[in-house]
Write a structure and sequence with these properties.
Layout lengths: L2 E5 L4 H17 L2 E5 L2 E2 L13 H16 L5 E4 L2 E2 L1 H12 L3 E5 L5 H7 L2 H8 L3 E5 L1
Parallel strand pairs: 1-2, 1-6, 2-4, 3-5, 6-7
Helix pairs in contact: 3-5
Length: 133
């Protein structure tokens, strides 16, 4: 484990993922990147109005602060796109060998309607995926 990509959205599951990232980075001496993807849905308004770049920028600043509290400097990334596919693409392009993310704990109906980002990434990423619950 050399390079960890933390998917962070500021929620409680993401904070658990951040705590796990800190633990792993310290144990293995791994570098850390943090990604907060601005969702873009094809065929709809390009960016969800309740989920804009400003929100993601604030989440990244929070993640940077929390990681710095543990002596970890992280690369911050705020791309736009399909959330799961963007996380997978960035991990591949930047050579991350591990992805750490939280889960929103969607019920069966919500998962069927919305899909689960963590399930998609776990099933499709080339990196090792750790889902903090």
């Amino acid at each position: 484990m050399n390079r960890i990509l933390l998917a962070y959205d500021g929620g409680e599951p993401a904070r658990r993922a951040l705590d796990l990232t800190v633990e792993l980075a310290q144990k293995f001496g791994a570098s850390v990147g943090v990604i907060s993807v601005v969702p873009v849905h094809p065929g709809r308004v390009p960016v969800d109005p309740w989920d804009d770049r400003g929100v993601h920028a604030e989440e990244l600043v929070e993640a940077r602060r929390l990681l710095r509290d543990h002596g970890i400097e992280a690369e911050l990334m705020e791309p736009g796109g399909d959330v799961a596919k963007t996380i997978e693409r960035v991990a591949d392009e930047k050579g991350y060998d591990t992805i750490v993310m939280g889960t929103r704990g969607l019920g069966m109906v919500s998962r069927a309607l919305q899909g689960s980002v963590s399930e998609h990434v776990a099933a499709n990423a080339h990196a090792t995926v750790i889902v903090a619950r």
